[in-house]
């Protein structure tokens, strides 16, 4: 099959033929229909993630069509259209039994610990517990864009932070995660302020329904948010994984506010100096989140299928597999609004 591989960190992906995946006995092989290009792929590409070894195929935001099933796979058949979380759980351990598949100690993560979906085909283990059926009404390009950013944002808002209608949400970073958080929070009935340093991204967020936008390169974002909300946000979503925005997210909250760390801290940002006085005096609650269990997919997919939220503006451009390398490298700088999705795996 044709695939793009990381053969050198911080260098163009190598496009070429590799062996087709072997079907797991409890899993499936998918023909990849679409795969998003995510900032997390950039962390893999630049060597920030210790799980990634050279020769890895990146790509963890994917949907596909089942072309082969293992002998122990019961729920899926050839021809089914499916979507998978980027954390593939064992579905047997105590964490999985409790519904916390994202904390599974033996999890497989395509593009990091296992071959990913920048390829024509991908193998998915434990398919019965990990895959979700993709409704016919949801386009595969949009479905791929949901695979990491939108599902992570949905889990952060609804499971970790229990967002309520009418609350103020401050979203730091307007990439795929941030825009997903904006659209989903508005659908829940919250009021949203988006923070970024790129005027084009802030204008885009405003066009998608943000109540206010703040350019943190030109203003004190926490002070502006406290002023706009009459005391501070109820919830802050940090969607970049860097110290500057994590500090600001904590400082923008009102008393008893909540913050969810959605952005992945990597490299120098794995260690941060944070305003613990704000945590103490504000009696804040800080949450970490990573991915979303497969069993929660229907709650999001049904919402989209029913027309309660339109996530199609997330997709900015469709690209070929050979163009993925440039898209990943673009995260070295300031990227344009929206998500790139690979839809052509033939070249």
Structural class: alpha/beta
Number of domains: 2
Task: Based on Cα principal axes, name the global outline.
Answer: globular
Question: What is the mean predicted local confidence, pLDDT?
Answer: 95
List the secondary-structure elements in sequence, H or E. Answer: EEEHEEHEHEHEHEHEHEHEHEHEHE
Task: Tell me the CATH superfamily of the largest domain.
Answer: Medium-chain alcohol dehydrogenases, catalytic domain
CATH topology of the largest domain: Quinone Oxidoreductase, Chain A, domain 1
Count of β-strands: 15
Rg over CA atoms: 20 Å
CATH architecture of the largest domain: Alpha-Beta Complex
Number of helices: 11
The helix content, as a percent range, equals: 25-40%
Just give the CATH class of the largest domain: Alpha Beta
InterPro entries: ADH-like_C, ADH-like_N, ADH_Zn_CS, ER, GroES-like_sf, NAD(P)-bd_dom_sf, Zn_alcohol_dh
Protein name: Zinc-dependent alcohol dehydrogenase family protein
GO molecular function: oxidoreductase activity, acting on the CH-OH group of donors, NAD or NADP as acceptor; zinc ion binding
Organism: Halocynthiibacter styelae
Features:
2 domains, Zinc-dependent alcohol dehydrogenase family protein, Quinone Oxidoreductase, Chain A, domain 1, ER, Rossmann fold, 347 residues, 24% strand, alpha/beta, 11 helices
Q: What do these coordinates show?
A:
Helix 4 crosses helix 5. The protein is of the alpha/beta class and 347 residues long. Strand 1 (2-5) and strand 2 form a beta hairpin. It has two domains: 2-149 and 292-344, Alpha-Beta Complex (Quinone Oxidoreductase, Chain A, domain 1), CATH 3.90.180.10; 152-288, Rossmann fold, CATH 3.40.50.720. The protein has helices spanning 39-45, 94-97, 127-130, 140-160, 176-188, 199-207, 221-229, 243-251, 276-281, 297-305, 324-329, and strands at residues 2-5, 14-17, 28-37, 61-69, 81-83, 121-124, 132-133, 168-172, 191-196, 212-215, 233-238, 253-261, 285-288, 315-320, 339-344. The strands form three sheets. Strands 3, 4, 5, 6, 7, 14 and 15 form a seven-stranded mixed β-sheet that branches. The chain starts with a strand and ends with a strand. The model has no long low-confidence stretch (mean pLDDT 95). Residues 8-342 form the Enoyl reductase (ER) domain. Keywords: Metal-binding, Oxidoreductase, Zinc. Its cofactor is Zn(2+). Pfam families: ADH_N, ADH_zinc_N. InterPro entries: ADH-like_C (IPR013149), ADH-like_N (IPR013154), ADH_Zn_CS (IPR002328), ER (IPR020843), GroES-like_sf (IPR011032), NAD(P)-bd_dom_sf (IPR036291), Zn_alcohol_dh (IPR050129).
